[in-house]
What does this fold into?
Amino acid sequence: MHTIPKIAEIESAQLRTGLPDFRVGDTVRVHYRIVEGDKDRVQVFQGVVLKRHRAGARSTFTVRKISFNVGVERVFLSHSPRIEKVEVVAKGVVRRARLFYLRDLAGKAARVRDQKDN
Amino acid sequence: MNQNPGVFGKKLGMTQIFGADGNVQRVTVVETGPLVVVGKRTQEKDGYSALILGLGERAERKVNKARAGAFKKANVTPKQHVKELRVAADFVAKYEVGATVKLDEIFTAGKFVDARGVTRGRGFTGVMRRWSFAGGVGSHGTHEYFRHGGSIGTNMTPGRTLPNLKMPGHYGAETVSVLGLKVARVDAEKNLLLIEGGIPGSKNSLVLIRQAVKKKTKNEK
It folds into this structure.
């Protein structure tokens, strides 16, 4: 949290719009641009949002998925120009702001209740 | 001695910006101005060449008479900070007294700079923090000897503690230079300089930024 106006100005110039309003527990598809040499392609990362760190231009969100039985987490910068788009696949119902307990669970227990099933 | 062109500035703090490739750069924001030439030192008159630069405004009633006279002679408003910057003669010749130093004439994004500042004072500090000593072991019967530095020398020969031995004492509040930092962005309009990496000093402290003495970009070598 910056109180210095000149730094706040630099940061506010970097804020981006166009991302959907998703919350912790939602399942999202993040389309992320990856540069390989001189080519770039879009990679999709789909998983549950574990955490949203809301800090202005420095905001991040963490997405967790299970890939070949191994848990993979990625932290994305919310305002990164590399994010092409974010799709909300499913809304989840959770009772806390940080879903770190999912790391200790596996299989059926590691699911988040869908809002539609409520 | 680094006599490359440079500026004084106030360290505002740190933040992060997205570069052209989308990667994040951690930057220190330095406010360098408006920086006004208050006076000059020349080889013929003073034996060396330097620019006397003024930064920030100071209320007229708070300026002593000697300083006020110098400002009046230069025909500029009183400044908060006045510092001499040793630079080459051709750089001194480029500026008239009363002129404002333009940031984009000195710095370019992507080039390297050196930063100098006074580090934050840490007061009387033990050896673990000050000299990164390992301290004592936490168990095996140790008591009251956890953060000590151990032995400070031998007994009869030489019978004294050698000079410059690392011991507890005052730490910080010393002038430190960091060489070879990259300029991330130059905002001449707002007098802001964004430099990748950290710079010594607390927020609002005065720092000196100069063109790098050693590190050059590839095509400069």
Summary: Residues 122-170 of chain B form one domain. The two ends of chain B are 20 Å apart (CA to CA). Chain B has a mean pLDDT of 89. Chain B has two domains: 6-120+172-211, 122-170.
